[in-house]
Specification:
By secondary structure, the chain is α+β, with helices and mostly antiparallel strands. The protein has 8 helices and 4 strands.
Length: 210
């Protein structure tokens, strides 16, 4: 059986939601980031990067949300979680997920974990101060994508939506920018939270609706 290594409310929740959407059989394995369990020798044997998520499969361990999300969509095609019959559209979805992974997520890390990028405490302060304006720029791009009234990032629901949802949740926190200026992003959050699979994943992780 699949085993998803996760921490509640982390980016791993995107893969958790996708597994629920797919109707997959899986187990959850909690990794307590606050206790640095991701750096223990036992976990580093599973994911040497010391991050979540990690998804243990019968062929080995997958890491990185874009890869895990694409694998779920391809493994359960009947769930319609990606445009599998259109290589260009699938690449567009992957490009969006790469943007979330490589651009949006590190911006949050400049606020949450600036020590990854600099040792100087003054640099930590400077990085954190820049985060709200940078996040506003990132989410302006998302807002623009949703401006034509589409309910989901690519019109039809896909694994890009739970991935966006996690970062959109983080964006609502105090001091992260001006999420009130992104009403379509907020509407996307509401639509996500109406989905049974999303509610099941949130309940399993002990997370509230927002």
């Amino acid at each position: 059986m699949l085993k998803l290594f996760y921490s509640p409310g982390s980016c791993a929740t995107a893969s958790h939601i996708a597994l629920e959407e797919a109707g997959a059989e899986y187990e959850l394995q909690l990794v307590k980031l606050g206790e640095r369990q991701q750096r223990t020798p036992e976990y580093l044997k599973i994911n040497p990067k010391g991050r979540v998520p990690a998804l243990a499969t019968d062929r080995g361990v997958l890491t990185e949300n874009p890869a895990i999300l694409a694998w779920i969509a391809q493994t359960w095609p009947e769930a319609n979680l990606a445009p599998l019959d259109d290589p260009f559209a699938f690449a567009e979805m992957q490009a969006f997920n790469a943007f979330l992974c490589a651009t949006v997520h590190p911006t949050f890390a400049h606020k949450f974990r600036p020590y990854r990028y600099a040792d100087d405490p003054a640099a930590h302060v400077a990085m954190a101060a820049k985060v709200p304006a940078t996040l506003d720029e990132h989410f302006a791009l998302v807002e623009s994508r949703l401006a034509d009234g589409r309910p989901w990032v690519f019109g039809d629901y896909s694994v890009a939506d739970p991935y966006l949802y996690i970062f959109a949740r983080w964006y609502q926190r105090d001091g992260m920018g001006h999420p009130e200026q992104r009403p379509r992003v907020r509407a996307h959050i509401r639509r996500m939270q109406e989905r049974p699979a999303v509610r099941r994943a949130l309940e399993q992780e002990g997370l509230p609706l927002i």
